[in-house]
User: Fold this.
Amino acid sequence: MPGSRLKKALVTGIAGFIASETARQLMEAGVEVVGVDNMNAYYDPRLKRHRLDLLRKKFDFEFHQFDIEEASKTQSLFKKHKFDAVFNLAARAGVRYSLINPEIYFSANTMGTLQIVKAMVETGVPKMVLASTSSLYAGTPMPFLESAPVNEPISPYAASKKAAEVLSYTYHYHYKIDCTVVRYFTVYGPAGRPDMSIFRFIRWIDEGQPIQLYGDGNQSRDFTFVSDIAAGTIAASKPVGYEIVNLGGGKEPVTLNEVIGFIEKSLGKTAKIQYHPPQKADMAETQANIQKALKLFNWEPKVSLESGLSQSIEWYKNNLELARSISLEEGQS
Assistant:
């Protein structure tokens, strides 16, 4: 377990989809975890509380509810604890809503990262793993390579993540903070985000509601299961200096139509589809080159799309009351 070298770690955004799984794997490896989350209502907070409750049933950990961009609270937390590493996974996600309310994206994703690296410098924390996004690769050749120029972000969300990456490099250059930037590719799995396609497709097909599909369904994604992403995130805590690393499926991308077909077969139901024009801020396809992750961290995904979708559907069935009551509206605050 790469995280076993760690004794204590801060996980920001711990109630989030990826961060909660990362925290679980860290604590299973014996790492003491301190978690921070502002529990915002971008999507239904009941799902965030569900993830926290699952962690609390198995582990004892310290949790704080505040925004990491609040300098005084972030600094106080770092002064209270001696962290070996920070997994900075707190973020405002969602490409489309970032066009509506870009300010909160730069506040959380960029200014939040600034407060984290400042506190690291002040308290001598040596390592940060920073969550970033494949959305930065818009307009570059596939499969996406970390060396590709990513200077033309097509959403405020991507721009805010680019700013966080650059900021982390600045603090590495001046203060020798060791930083691995991990660019995630379409993460899915049990208790996934309700603003993402997998959660919505499962529920809409099960309930007989029309799938709201932007485009013709032939747009493709490099789907990556959440447990694989969390394992890669922890592996990225290895000292590297400063590196940007893709964490993705690494295989041929899968179309949304193929995903819909699998869910239909698994549920024994036929999807109704309502088509809409493609969203300008959405990428048509994504595919990761993951050779760098393999070389640096000996990481590659293990869970197949079929297995991952089956586990996602199983969670939905086992948590039917919650899953059906979760609001699918995004951008609540």
About this structure: The chain has a mean pLDDT of 94.
